[in-house]
């Protein structure tokens, strides 16, 4: 990995992932890895992990940047995100390392990635490039994820589910079409769901800047959660 990447995201970074276990008699075979927004791990991702566990699975909300390292200012968030995704090999190596730690804590589970905004993109990258992955679900995620040109390099068994706001200014029609075409050309099992009258960040209760293309949608949030639950149950078998 590049020295600057290692310095910012790898070396001496203490991560405190939030692991949530099912409290019933027996959990499903699915373990959900939750990738956060560009703000890093927050109460939103922790709460979503709790919701997933209430469906009978286990989950880990990823501490992406490390304890005390979450950016707070908009420019810092943008700069941190761009540094994170700039190099495919460095990014996938970091994600693989994180997932290996999670898999060690939750052995014999089917890893399914879920993410929001930046995390939506990261869930797709983890699903496509980490061979142990069984599925990836993206909520208002970015479609400029790193591709592999050879189907041999792609995790062919991963199932893809994308939830997209049709009015999301960060996912234009061209980038959405290119993503769909890519998944189809690679022979993947994929679904791409557009929600009408829905903007970016539609899953985030605090999102309230419609003039900038960001707004929570109670209806789309509920529908997406319902579809995700079916998706996870399908993978669990």
Automatic annotation (TrEMBL):
This is Dienelactone hydrolase family protein. Pfam families: DLH. One of its GO terms (molecular function) is hydrolase activity. InterPro entries: AB_hydrolase_fold, Dienelactn_hydro, Dienelactone_hydrolase-like. Residues 29-223 form the Dienelactone hydrolase domain. Keywords: Hydrolase. The lineage of its organism: Bacteria, Pseudomonadati, Pseudomonadota, Gammaproteobacteria, Oceanospirillales. It comes from Marinomonas gallaica.
